């Protein structure tokens, strides 16, 4: 039996690293063969983030390549489809996997289905609005990243196993050491160009807070496009520098507008901050509320006034930072790290493979 992961992007994507690649050592230890099949490569994402333009010919070739990869899956194998096989294409290939008698595990960690059922185009809503529901119906097993997504599966009378995207503590072995120095109080954010609009939800209070204070904003991974008016030090995301960049933060922030998509979104930023022992301020939206215990391991900011209040509190009472950071680290160690979820994932795969063999 071989476990085939079908995913949209390769390892430049955080979702691939957190939903697929991270399990490789555990699969090897359990003696489970596996293969990764990326639809689109890193060049696609780099071009998209840098220019907003992509090669349609390159996308077409990628679709053909992925269709061929599907033919390599045998009846004794397992296929894990992360999100969907082909964006803006009917879910017929997911259905064909089941038609061939292959056990299909559907995995989703973001409510990307809202890109279809809430799309501005009536045609897209008509053609693809129920695509994910149909995939869920065809799947033999389902993995959801959080309760919101599990409830979506439940609306189709399907039970999902909840396995969140989490942090590998082996990578995050270092924690923040807070020192009394003259260095600026650093407010940090990490993300991608596509999530910059989330950061802008708190732009006004973040900017106002830094005025007249020895404070700065450091943004990692946003890119420079469209950030000319944001008073922040902008750094490129590099995997080799990710943890060291985070350890410069005195507080990590995760602003998030309250909408249907964000209520089902994962909270990887918060887990990253907490894993580094950094206090967190986040919007009280969706999964954020399951991780942040207000006043214990971070703060939930309901308004611009709240953002100012909690930033000021941490700035003026620096002894709170290591206390909140330590509690955040414990939160990750207990519930949101790979060392906890990987054994659950392996157990799930072994159980599913045994069912397919009977």
Describe the structure.
The chain is α/β, with parallel strands linked by helices and 358 residues long. The chain folds into two domains: 185 residues, Rossmann fold (3-Layer(aba) Sandwich); 151 residues, Rossmann fold. 43% of the residues lie in helices and 16% in strands. The strands form two sheets. The chain has a six-stranded parallel sheet with strand order 2-1-3-4-5-6, with helices on both faces. A six-stranded parallel sheet has the order 9-8-7-10-11-12, with helices on both faces. Helix 9 links the parallel strand 5 and strand 6. Helix 11 packs parallel to helix 16 and helix 14 crosses helix 17. The chain is globular. The mean pLDDT is 92.
Properties at a glance:
Rossmann fold, six-stranded parallel β-sheet, globular, 18 helices, alpha/beta, 2 domains, 358 residues
Which helices and strands occur, and which strands form pairs?
Layout: E1 2-9, H1 14-19, H2 24-29, E2 33-40, H3 42-51, H4 56-70, E3 78-82, H5 92-99, E4 103-108, H6 114-117, H7 122-128, H8 131-138, E5 141-144, H9 147-154, E6 161-162, E7 185-190, H10 196-200, H11 203-210, E8 215-220, E9 233-235, H12 242-246, E10 251-254, H13 260-263, H14 268-275, E11 280-282, H15 288-291, E12 298-300, H16 304-316, H17 320-335, H18 338-357
Q: Write the element-wise H/E pattern from the N-terminal end onward.
A: EHHEHHEHEHHHEHEEHHEEHEHHEHEHHH
In percent, how much strand structure appears in the residues?
A: 15-25%
Mean pLDDT equals 92
What is the first-to-last residue Cα distance? 13 Å
